[in-house]
Description:
The protein is mostly beta strands. It has one domain: Sandwich (Immunoglobulin-like). It contains 1 helix and 9 strands. It has one helix spanning 76-80; strands spanning 3-4, 7-10, 15-20, 37-44, 51-56, 61-64, 69-74, 90-101, 104-116. The strands form 2 sheets. Strands 1, 2, 4, 5, 8 and 9 form a 6-stranded mixed β-sheet that branches. Strand 4 (37-44) and strand 5 form a beta hairpin. 17% of the residues are buried.
Amino acid sequence: MAQEVALTIDQGSQYVQPFKFFADEGNTDILDLSGASAAMQFKRDDYDGAVVLALTSASGLVIDAAQGTITATITAAQTAAIKVMKGDDSVTGRYDLEIEVGGVKKRVLQGDFTITREVTTI
């Protein structure tokens, strides 16, 4: 079952977040991510569920197989480019992170996200 983690990201700022995964429910056996690829999408909560951000192991996700971690890095330019609708203070939605190892795809992380509006843009 995927871990449920809520994320808050500041528009216009870099966001770096490592996630650690375990093979057991007791969180003692580190999940071996050798040969894994990963993909992560953020979709709006609104009527069209538009993708506001997508990361992959080729761009934005770094896998440390031995440590069982995937680090998501979103640049300040990427967060600044996310449109917050006029009159809103944030963008909200859902995201998930999937890994694929040996042709088997598994969702390992999911949750709500909030991207808070940037005020200072200098």
